[in-house]
Amino acid sequence: MLADEQVVSRFPEITPDLVEITIRRLRFIGEYLAIPRARFEYRRDPDDQKFIELAIDLNATHILSFDKDMLSLPGSRGDAGTRFRQRLPEVRVMDANQFIERYSAELRI
Fold it and tell me: Where are the domains of the chain?
């Protein structure tokens, strides 16, 4: 969550106003999906499974995470990494800082 204390302490430039503006922009261009239809078994980190399933269902282009396991998944040589690349060949997994650096101009932040 962008307003989380850990995120704010790591990225002091993320202000409440910036969070609100960003969420409004994401809601404008995003989709809401209550229950994903896709199934992606991710035994290595079951807490991340829902994010991968949402990315599959919504044809995501990016997954943002601070989770080192999630960040390493696309390059993993294991079964989960192979299945991830097969199901989501174009998806980029990056942390929020990388995303902001890459897309700040497009998001006007």
Answer: 1-30, 33-107
